[in-house]
Amino acid sequence: MLIDNVIRYVALHRRLGLTFDEQSRTLTLYARYAEAHGDRYTSVTRIHDWCASASSPVRARSCYDAVRRFCAFLNAEDPLHEVPPAGAFGRGKRPRPAPYLLETHQIRAILEAALKLPHIGSIGPCTYHHLFGLLAATGLRVSEALALQRSDITDDGLIVRNGKFGKDRLLPVHETTRRALAEYLTIRNRADSDSNDLFALRTGYAPSKVTAHVTFVRIARQLGFRGPTGTPGPRLHDLRHTFAVRSLEACAHDRQAVAHHMAALSTYLGHSDIAHTYWYLEATPVLMHNIAAASEQLFGEELP
């Protein structure tokens, strides 16, 4: 059965230290589709048909590449498994979506709306209020915030374990953020739960990334910050974008300060390469305006 091979393939990668969640979901969907058509072995035609039904060209390419690697794994064991050719759905990296920079009043409105979520008698509204607030105040990745444990709140800051690149880091937080976390922790400790997850719902465990994202989008639509499905607007990850961009804008008139701040920000955000941090300059209109003004001045000085 193809699904059994998917389970084995995913388990192998997880033993190597990878989370492999997205690949697992993709391969499971493919295996179910193929088995529904009676396939015992991977088939180039079936893979092409399945990927062609994806919601977008980017998604089709992502699915195709994931299944192709899976096929190569199976083909090494049994040549009856066909391996599709590389690049059938195009090549290239997925384009990074343009960030939506939230204004202070919008973030405040989202936090207030989170407290009014329809979960009477549940810790859920308080959890989402503080989760979104922490993301806005620290620029943490959503996965990092949801993985926090109650014991990760220390006098020196937050201990972020197993970040995106498997690295731990200590994250200093502002005193106001520390107080807000302390208040939430008091409420969290009163909740009946066997879990040590910092952010918990009525289940006693942290919400999934999908659940947190859906809740954020629902609030953004309710407040009029985002249109109907298919239209652009703020995403949960944009709280991280906004934190990074606004922190750079705070030293917008001092290019030397920007350079020093960039190095610190890269470490704070948990980037593996400072080049990833420089990407935020593209989304900073204030800094881009200053760069353009400086370039014009330099160009004017060089004219005879």
Structural class: mainly alpha
The assembly state of the depicted protein chains is single chain
Count of domains: 3
Q: The biggest beta sheet, please?
A: 3 strands, antiparallel
The amount of helix comes to 55-70%
Which strand-content bin applies to the residues? under 5%
Uncertain segments: none
Count, helices? 13
Report the order of strands and helices: HHHHHHHEEEHHHHHH
What's the CATH H-level superfamily name of the largest domain? Answer: Intergrase catalytic core
Radius of gyration: 23 Å
Intertermini distance: 76 Å
Q: Which architecture of the largest domain per CATH? A: Orthogonal Bundle
Shape: globular
CATH fold label of the largest domain: hpI Integrase, Chain A
Q: Quick one: CATH class of the largest domain? A: Mainly Alpha
Query: How would you state the average pLDDT, rounded?
Result: 84
Describe the structure.
This protein is an all-alpha fold. It has three domains: 2-75; 104-222, Intergrase catalytic core (hpI Integrase, Chain A); 238-302, no CATH class. Helix content is 56%, strand content 3%. It is built from 13 helices and three strands; from the N terminus they run H-H-H-H-H-H-H-E-E-E-H-H-H-H-H-H. Strands 1-2-3 form a three-stranded antiparallel β-sheet, with no helix packed on it. A hairpin with an 8-residue loop joins strand 2 (157-160) and strand 3. Helix 6 runs antiparallel to helix 8 and helix 6 packs parallel to helix 10 (238-249).
